[in-house]
Structure of Sialidase-1:
Amino acid sequence: MADLFKTRVMAGKFRLLILLTLFIIVILARWIGNKAFTKHEMRYDPVTVMTNENPSSRSFFENVKSVVSPVVQTRPVVSSLAWQAMSVDRPGGVSLNQTQDVVLWRSIRKGEIPIYRVPVFTYTPKGNLVAIAEGRRISSKDFNPKIFEVRRSTDEGETWSYPQRIVDDGKSPIKRSSYIGTIFVDDTTATIFLMYVFCEFCPTRSLMLMNSTDDGITWGRPRNITDQVGKEYATHPSPGNGIQKKQEPAKGRLVVCGHGFYNGKGLVLLLSDDHGVTWRRGAFVRSQPFKMRLKKGAFDPDECQPVELPDGSIYIVVRNEKTYKKYHCKMIMRSFDGGETLPQNYTYLDQALIEPRITSGLWYHDETMFYSGPKHDTNRRNLYIRWSYDHGKTWTSEKRIWEEPASYSTLMMLPHDKRHLYILYERGHKTEIDEIALTKLKISSENDRNE
């Protein structure tokens, strides 16, 4: 009987030892798993803050150190050889002087269309100007039913046509509405395009494309191109300009940058190699994590504006929606293959371009890159145009356009007029969406002033 009792005690102790061992193994496995996951997260750092050296040669911890340290002189993540090839010495530089200011839309906050917002702007194949804005029914909220109105100028902005409606949601339910997007020109076929999204907050959104072949006077019916790019990449074409590449690689390609998807955040480049007949997706950059609701500080590239540089690469300025790494400044991305990819090691935060989470204008002309946006980290006011002589490496000059509240803006130049820059933007005295105005600025160079 005593032996049986001793056997049971030993068996109980053995079982307890086994359970304790299993518990230790489980704890150890979870610790190792968490450590491996943390290392994986550390290896995937989508954005690097601009510094004076190439972060691709540093460890992750060195990159983190550069993030938390103040940066005075900023520089993108490119090799020194690349910058030597791109940089251009400009001993004189340019200045901007206002020559014209006109209000194109006013938000009267009553009647059928109380609010006008989100202007887009382009030159036309015949050298005229076309501006389009959203008219929002009910209130200023994004999800209200809308109209799109077009105004044209044939005398370089001196006078403007009466507004013409080209899209009208009618009295559709809230959220089942259109959202203005990207305007661009195919110079080969003399066609103006407007790409936008319908029902952005619906489970299935529609990517729409419409065009004008008579210089913006009349517009065809919108066509749904969602099936061409795929449901997963039916994005919101960002307010601003698309581009047609003038240099290789992919000369003649149409490129549109869009943000947001039905099931997550991020950006995508949409590409057409047959003058807008068919479209496909190119580079795709996910938010981290890839989902609809993200916490502050997450990697969330949003509204984006591309330009082509002389070497054929594409430079994109991106809204930093969740203030990644708690920086209130623009993200920059680059493509060197016509928009097929956006390499991670050419993605960075440009601390010189502070922003209050907003879409901004971008235009490249004659070795000068112009940028427009509020020069404030949290408030939409104090709108500036800034410019760079070294393809966005440094921003050395600026001009204030509007000191009071101001919001979305877009930049443009006429192909035949190299002496004037136009900015179309939201502004006001009480709020930043009181009106949509056009300001025309004369570009003067040091040589002009010395003559």
